Amino acid sequence: MTERHASRRIVLRNDIPDAQIWDFAERQGWSYLGHVPRDPERGVFYEARWETSPGNTVHFIIDEFADSLYMVAQQESEAEADRIADTIQNSLPSYSVPQLAEEFDINMYPAGWAAWLLRLGVGAPKRPDDLVTSRIRDSIGHKKPAVRRAAVWAIRYTAWPELKGYLEHMRSDEQDPAVLAEIEEAIRVFNEVGDSQ
User: Fold this and answer.
1) For 120, left (φ over 0), alpha (ψ -120 to 50), or beta?
2) What is the dihedral of CA 44, 47, 52, 56, to 10 degrees?
3) Which of 56, 87, 101, 169 is 20–30 Å from 79 (CA)?
4) Mean pLDDT of 79-96
5) Whole-structure pTM over 0.85, yes or no?
6) Which distant-in-sequence residues (6+ apart) come within 8 Å of 178 by Cβ?
7) CB atoms inside a 10 Å sphere around CB 92
């Protein structure tokens, strides 16, 4: 099977009307393939899929965990995946990485801090970027467990191997058993990915 390249995830504004997404996909000439119904008990979020050309797809996902809507392209050509992501970014109400970082910066209360840190992780570029890493770094020692947990998940969403060291640093200091369990699971996932490459 031909390898597919994923674009960066384009985080859409949460108030975007569903019809605007469907109209955009129709204007692009994409063929609707169906959807994956949400199944919260199994951690499955709603996902709609379109085919852009044979074997190449675009996905719209409602990520309830990160309270985010996003689109991602899966294409045989990395350049084509990135081109489609740029088209989505420029055509639909969405957040750029600097905008996500700005929203994070103005949400200093723990709930807002955690929520926007997750969205920043979801919308992170494919390669390490200081706009993201600096804000994760500022969050890993936060006094509130919810923010530290969001930092763990932001690292998982980026999938940047360079951030595994942050998880190991957190593991050595973490006192909250639930957050520690999340850290251990994230390290396991990073190790599995590393072993498979």
Assistant:
1) alpha
2) 0
3) 101
4) 98
5) yes
6) 145, 149
7) 18
